[in-house]
Write a structure and sequence with these properties.
Blueprint lengths: L1 H14 L3 E5 L6 E3 L3 E4 L5 E4 L1 H6 L7 E3 L9 E3 L1 H10 L3 E5 L3 H13 L6 E3 L10 H19 L3 E6 L2 H8 L1 H4 L4 E6 L5
Parallel strand pairs: 1-7, 1-9, 7-8, 9-10
Antiparallel strand pairs: 2-6, 3-4, 3-5
């Protein structure tokens, strides 16, 4: 029985030799109190919850207003996930559906919390579509590229968007030799 235990420990150590821990930013590491608004062509706007945003289909003349995401004063920390992130540094990154431009505010916010970590925004800059599926595929593609270029053996992914979770889980079929764990984060109200 002792030999079996040693074999299992050796295999676990081998899998964890080259890990990557990937954390989404908005609604995973920090909650945005400002939120998402749908802007109508007549100038009126209305808020959407995060869950509504995931499935919302814009109507003719509507655009998405994410202005609140550029103000770090609208953010409150998710202490549990920030602690997990800190635990996994230096093998952790932040991967967001923010555009590279708005990712700067997320990096600034993390710096205020004394967290310096590689952070990547892969979002599509276009206010005429939610791009939920496109952004999910871009996140999965980014993770796939990291697995291949760094010969990773283990990936853990935290995100609040089910589409992102499903896109990353689909990598398991493409890369069965890599252990890929996902964690769907509950959105903080």
């Amino acid at each position: 029985m002792k030999k079996l235990g040693k074999l299992i420990k050796k295999e676990i150590d081998n899998v964890l030799k080259r890990p990557l821990y990937v954390f989404d930013f908005d609604e995973t590491l920090a909650h945005n109190k400002g939120g998402i608004r749908i802007q109508s062509s007549d100038g009126s706007s209305r808020p959407l919850t995060q869950e509504e945003y995931y499935v919302y289909k814009l109507k003719q003349g509507e655009t998405i207003n994410l202005d609140d995401y550029s103000d770090i004063n609208n953010l409150t920390p998710n202490l549990l996930h920030l602690a997990l992130l800190k635990k996994h540094i230096p093998n952790a990154v932040v991967l967001s559906a923010r555009t590279p431009d708005t990712m700067e505010q997320a990096v600034e916010y993390l710096a205020l919390l004394d967290i310096s970590i590689p952070s990547f925004g892969v979002g599509i800059e276009d206010d005429t579509d939610t791009h939920v599926i496109g952004n999910a595929l871009r996140k999965a593609e980014w993770i796939s590229q990291q697995i291949q270029s760094k010969d990773l053996t283990y990936v853990e992914f935290w995100d609040d968007n089910p589409a992102n979770i499903h896109a990353v889980e689909a990598l398991r079929k493409e890369m069965p030799e890599v252990v890929i764990l996902t964690h769907l984060v509950n959105v903080i109200d």
